[in-house]
Design brief:
With 138 residues, this protein is mainly alpha-helical. The protein is built from six helices and no strands. The structure holds zinc ion. This is Reverse transcriptase zinc-binding domain-containing protein.
């Protein structure tokens, strides 16, 4: 956006410690790592650290289809809420902690997975998306 002539700070507004670029903002920043890493740590997963590698990895991150779908949703939610937090800090001069962002992602994901779990009526209750979510990620 700076190349387009927009007047925005060059430093990361999440940590103020590094230049803002895609790799840092979504994976290298301490705030981002706390959010994305929280879910990966809980599921004992170690995704690639580079954005493009992670895009490939997220296509098939696990042999368990429930875990794979949940990781895709967590990935999308993390990117969305980190970008939203970045814009909140940049434009509204307000901020939230990584803990608050994680909590919001958990609420959104639980709300998304609940109806998806109810639709898979053939899955055993202990193998539903929601039970996988609570077992590994929440
Ligand atoms: Zn940062």
């Amino acid at each position: 956006m700076r190349r387009w002539g927009l007047s925005i700070p060059s430093d990361c507004v999440l940590c103020s410690g590094n230049a803002e670029f895609r790799e840092h903002l979504f994976f290298g920043c301490g705030v981002s790592f706390a959010v994305w890493g929280n879910f990966m740590f809980r599921a004992s997963l170690t995704p690639p650290l580079l954005f493009m590698d992670c895009l490939t990895w997220v296509l098939s991150p696990s042999r368990d289809p429930n875990i794979s779908l949940i990781i895709k949703l967590v990935f999308q939610a993390s990117i969305y809420f980190l970008w939203k937090e970045r814009n909140r800090r940049l434009h509204d001069h307000a901020s939230r902690s990584s803990t608050a962002i994680i909590k919001e992602i958990k609420v959104i994901l639980t709300a998304k997975l609940d109806p998806l779990s109810r639709r898979s009526e053939f899955d055993a209750p202990d193998n539903s998306l929601l039970s996988t979510w609570f077992r590994y990620f929440n």
